[in-house]
Amino acid sequence: MTYMGGGYRSGVRKRKSDAKRRRLQGGGRKGINEDIDNAVLHWLQERREAGVRVTGKALKQYALQQHHKNGSQSFKASCGWFYKFKKRHNISFRRSTHVAQKSRAITDDRVDPFLRFVKTQRKRENYDLKDIGNMDETPVWIEMPGKSTLELKGKKEVRMMSTGHEKERITVVLSALADGTKLAPFVLLPGIRPLPKEDIPSGIQVYMCGSRVKSWANEGTTTEWLNRIWGRHVTTRRLLV
After folding, report:
1. What count of Cα atoms within 13 Å lies in the side-chain half-sphere of residue 93?
2. What is the pLDDT along the chain (241 residues), one digit of tens a residue?
3. Domains in the chain: boundaries
4. What architecture does CATH give domain 31-89?
5. pTM here?
6. From 102's CA, which of 20, 36, 88, 120 has a CA 20 to 30 Å away?
7. Sign of dihedral through CA atoms 193, 194, 196, 200?
């Protein structure tokens, strides 16, 4: 209790050592360089106005370059800085959600019986791991502009710049054996023109599908894959999954 001219007031006296305390030089949280912060924001806005996709990684790399360029070698484009930058400038990720996914219950009803069938076949026929293979084809799009980008909140239109080829694709057949051996990729291209051998990278097989616009897997391309890929690596009785 402290006596105050006829009355008492509760409180704690400040120690002299506390009054003399000062922040050490270079200590405490670093202030925000507003010029660089605004430059990063301006860079983001320019790219979005042009319809260019901006990822979090790209923005952090640009901010890191700007800080290093201005002599701030200690700056780290951390996740914490990125979160606060978005919060300061009212920025968020915008993405499309038109792709529906199947529920786990639907896939489990198909996967479990299939796995039991493969295990039963291997046990009955005594297949070795090198005699069991798996193959599937996957589309490879000529252009993949991405589905999300950093954008200012409240924007009604989120544009993505592209060259107009985002619907064009080729097909790649990938396969591997159960022992871990990866077989050569089998690339399906549209058209009938012969390809110069020097233009084909080593380690892959290329097949022209005949159609000028389609490169889908069908009975003919599967037969080619069996002859060029599957038949070259497996010579005994085998199981193709």
Report:
1. 12
2. 555 555 555 555 555 555 555 655 545 455 578 889 999 999 998 888 877 788 889 899 999 999 888 888 888 889 999 999 999 998 888 764 444 445 566 667 778 888 898 889 888 988 888 889 999 988 887 776 666 777 777 777 777 676 666 667 788 999 999 999 999 999 988 877 777 777 788 889 888 887 655 667 788 888 889 998 988 765 678 888 8
3. 31-89, 127-147+162-240
4. Orthogonal Bundle (1.10)
5. 0.48
6. 120
7. positive
